[in-house]
Amino acid sequence: MTIFSVIDNQAPHTLLDQTFKGELDPKMSLEKYRHVAFIFSVLQNSLAVLTDLKSKEKYVYHGGLSLYFGIAEEKSSSIQSSVGADSILSLIHPDDLRTRHLLELKLFHFIKDKNSKDRLDFHIILGIRVLNKDQQYIPIELKIFFGSSTDSIQLILYQYSFSSGMNHTSVPVIINSSNGQILSDHNFNTKKILTKREVEILKEISVGRASKEISQRLFISKNTVDRHRQNIMEKLRVKSALEACHIANIMGII
């Protein structure tokens, strides 16, 4: 399963591959983030999923939305392994999963070099379509927040809620909540995600060349090509070279 069907992991590979040595700011501890997720589920009838990338655990809180879509009983909660798929993922329209994937990728690479305080200012808002019990797609709103430790992005909070339609944006956005700025594509230099050599190899892959042929054309070893292929897939958070080519093409990398 992939982002083009059902994402089988709530936490992207790039985020999981970080080195987690630092600690969360005591002012925003894990318990406080869990309380925020719980409050979302109660006050907004949301489905809130808090993923701790360091411990590889998920804290799931169900509001009325979960009951409506038949995911779980309202006002229930659970702790799960972060490698397990959330029930709602299989209900989201595949195109919306792809959009979410691209936005998370852009935001992660945008904030990963910022200080831990500034990382908290940014979040994602997008409209997604979710299948209800009658197999009809219902529009809901998804907000994604990143929680930061001193050296990494440790927490991701996903809030799924019904949209009023009054303040729901028709296009997905990344917002700086400290000043209300909506970030546009010019804020993200996606070409920096991959190195020059990785782009070179991805272009070769995109025209159907295998690792051995690429190594001969670029005068490097096959093992080096394979290592670059793996790095490319990790950076773009995909599970195949084909997906990497597709995502890179959409983002203007190749």
UniProtKB/TrEMBL annotation:
Pfam families: GerE. Gene3D superfamilies: PAS domain, Winged helix-like DNA-binding domain superfamily/Winged helix DNA-binding domain. SMART domains: HTH_LUXR (SM00421). The keyword Transcription regulation applies. InterPro entries: Sig_transdc_resp-reg_C-effctor (IPR016032), Tscrpt_reg_LuxR_C (IPR000792), WH-like_DNA-bd_sf (IPR036388). Keywords: DNA-binding, Transcription, Transcription regulation. Residues 187-252 form the HTH luxR-type domain. This is HTH luxR-type domain-containing protein. It comes from Chryseobacterium rhizosphaerae. The lineage of its organism: Bacteria, Pseudomonadati, Bacteroidota, Flavobacteriia, Flavobacteriales.
